[in-house]
Structures are given as C-alpha cells and as structure tokens.
Amino acid sequence: KAPGTIDAARSRRHARTSHRKGTSNMSAIASACALSRPAFRVRASASDGAAKKVVSTPSSSGVMMSKAPGPRNTRARAIQVDTSAEAKDVATKDPLMLRAIRGEDVERPPIWMMRQAGRYMKIYQELCKKHPTFRERSEKVDLAVEISLQPWEAFQPDGVILFSDILTPLSGMNIPFDIVKGTGPVIMDPVRGMDDVKKITKLEPEKSVPFVGEALGLLRQEVGNNATVLGFVGAPFTLASYIVEGGTSTHYKVIKKMAFDEPQIYEALLNSITDSVVEYVKYQADSGAQVIQIFDSWASEFCPSDFDKYCLPYLTRIVTEVKATHPDVPLILYSSGSGGLLERLKTTGADVISLDGTVDMADARARLGMDQAVQGNMDPVSLFGSKAHITERVLDTIKKAGNTKHVMNLGHGVMQGTPEENVAHFFQTVKDYRY
Q1: Residue spans of alpha helices (H) in 303-433
Q2: To pair with 305 at 20 to 30 A between CA atoms, which of 15, 153, 343, 360?
Q3: Is-contact 32 10, C-beta < 8 A?
Q4: What is the spatial distance between Cα 157 and Cα 401, in angstroms, rounded to a whole number?
Q5: Quick one: pLDDT at residue 92?
Q6: What whole-number distance in Å separates Cα of residue 231 and Cα of residue 227?
Q7: Which of 113, 222, 117 is nearest to 165 (CA)?
Q8: pLDDT in tens, 171-224
C-alpha cells in the first residue's frame, strides 16, 4: 500500500514492535520497511554530534540489515536497498533543509510545519482513542515515533520533527508537571522563591528522558537523508513562565513581577533553566536531531528593552555554548509575536530566525539581510482557504523570501481542524516549485 495510509503506519509500527520484542519475523519487517526506506542509515555520533553513515550488509537470511556503532539504538533494522541513481544521490547528499540553511544552491525551498505531527490528522485522532494521555503518546518511544512519522508518510515533508513537548524535560529537573486535556500544562509546585529555585536540579537527559534520544535515533533510521530530523526545546523564559505561573497565562504577571522586583530570584531561575536547556539541545543533537528549534513562544510579552534584559542573554548563551561543541548543528529560533524583535533575535547567533505572521516576509528580509536564514511564515488560517488561495499565499511568500536561505513553514503551528487535503496541497505546491 502507498505511504500515508493507515495500514502503512500500522505495518511500520508492527514491524518496530515485533523487532523490539525479539521476534524473528524478518519478512514482516522487510515488508513494512519497503514502503519507503533510504539506501543508507544515518546516525549522530554521541561524541561529536556528526552524522555517520551506517552501511547495509546482507544477513544469512538474505535480508539487508543495518549495522551501527555505539551503544544507543543498536537494534538491527531490515531495509530494502534501492540501487537507482536517484536513490544513491539522496543517500550521499545532505537533506535539502540542511543545504538550504547553509546557503547552498537548491532547486526549491524545503518545507515542514510547526505542530506538523498531531491533532489535525485523523490517523492521530484515532490513535488518541487508544492512548488518551499526551504524556503516554510523547514519552513511549514507539508511539512518539509513529506519530512523528504520520505526516512524513502522508505528505513527505522535508523536515520530520519529533512529537514531544517543550515541558518534557521538567520532570528531570525536579519540577513535577502534567498536561491535562482541556486545561493544558499544570505545574504541581510553582516556583516562587529562592528556596524553590534551589530545589531545581540540572537535567541529565540520558537518565530522565532517554525516550527522547531513542525516538530521535529511530527517526533518523526511518527517513535517512530523505528529510531532516528536527528536535526542539523550550527557551528559558518560556519555560520559566510555566514554572512560575503554574501553567498557561494571559498576561504573565507573576513571572514579569519576579523579573522586575526580585531580580536575584529571576536570574537564578533563568540560569538554572539555561544550564539544562543547553544539555538538552546537545543531547538531542547527539541522539540524531540534525536541526534543533528553540521555542521562546512568550518572549514577545516583554517590551524590546525588557527583552534585552530578561530574555536575550539566556538565548545568546544557549547558542554560544551549543555552538562551542556542535558548530555544525543549525539552531532555529522562534518567538511568537516577534515582529518588533527581529534584529535582536539575530544577535543571538541563531542560524535561522523563524518568522511569525506579525511581519511581512519582504520586510523581514530587508531588516535581517539575505545572509540570515529565515523560516516561515504563512498564516496558518490560510490553510482553511481554497486551494487557489493557498497557492497564491505560497507563491507570494517564496517570492518575497528569495531563492536562498529560506525554509518554508507557517507563522505558527498548524491548527486543529485544518483540512488534511489542504495541508497536502500546501506541501505539494512548495515541492513542485522551482526557483
């Protein structure tokens, strides 16, 4: 069956699950993998974050098996090798997104969507009936991988982002939380004083969130060089806003008052969070993520001068410290409502500035310069319009972005209720485009 069908997704998951349980049903695995499998596997090195090719070799049964070094995700994987020239080209070339971010000549802009995996897809809604809690879906490796691959199998985007949440690492920082349906994030014990800050521990991802690393490694095996695997993290202020407010907020009064009136507590909290975010970014890169997006979703709640004081130093520190050990891993920085902060975001040194809908693409290019890679920024509501409207918006965005260093995306996450056929048209329109 063609990739994108429910049967295809189920077949893939059955193959992964059967193999994890130690069964020897290699024909089932090979059948599932034959749906779409690259000629080579790629895995990130835990020592330097660099991608390493995993060579396929024949087993005694005649099925091609992949062998990979290192202790993480060393399970054998059955693949079907495509020996065509096109397949060999894909196997040896870096994915389109990486090449576009670096400023190499590419034939079209790469495309993916924020919130790409999830609630707008019927196949995801069906899965939720069997697995009703978000944390189960995002923290069980097979489920997280299956959900991450659902849009890949349906639309073949140029980026495959891990299905997870920015709050996922909090438990490993001694900050208990839950994500409640209909309510959103709930922090059990909000941080309000210095004693609370001192209880926060530095994240050790290998111990507290190993499922993230394993899922990223499996995603790299699944898509090979056919797409870029993305990880993501929450930025220090955005994480702090949940930790201090106790959950979602409207005006962020508690966290902002802490910043204004209790700067010692605020700085201690933000530095502690930054320490963990840096480790989390590096861990994701070492586990298989080729690009990491940093979400500072609520930074624009500060006026520009306050942003300089209460957000910018911590963002800059993340980029600087990650680049010191992982210089070749692109970092994307996104902040909702950040039209007034673009030049400030650029000073962080992030490889890509992700634009939301508060700024016109042409204006952003003029302000940031063509040397700065950008991402975005179609209005997510455009995907509720006609296919003719979607095409018009796509072509307008690409034209304004120019033919270099642009990753096509939405200005915000794809919305619940977005027609899947319109999402398919969005992807196909970009993939059919040529500079």
Answers
A1: 304-310, 312-325, 342-346, 361-368, 387-401, 420-432
A2: 360
A3: no
A4: 19
A5: 63
A6: 13
A7: 117
A8: 999 999 998 888 889 999 999 999 999 999 999 999 999 999 999 999 999 999
d(CA 255, CA 192): 9
- pLDDT digit string, tens, across residues 288-300: 999 999 999 889 9
H-run or E-run covering 406: strand 406-407
Determine the Cα–Cα distance for residues 299 and 111; give it in Å rounded to an integer: 25
Predicted local confidence at residue 161, as pLDDT: 98
Which residue matches tokens 């409502």?
337
206 pairs with which residues across the strands? none
Residue 254, exposed/middle/buried by CB under 10 A (0-12, 13-18, 19+)?
middle
The helix/strand/coil state of 5 is: coil
* β-sheet bridge partners, residue 362: none
Q: What is the dihedral of CA 73, 222, 328, 114, to 10 degrees?
A: -120
User: Is omega for the bond preceding 377 within 30 degrees of 0, making it cis?
Assistant: yes
Dist CA 98 CA 96 (whole Å): 6
* pLDDT value at residue 248: 87
pLDDT at 180: 86
Name the residue type at position 294. Answer: I
The low-confidence residues of the chain, meaning pLDDT below 70, are 1-92
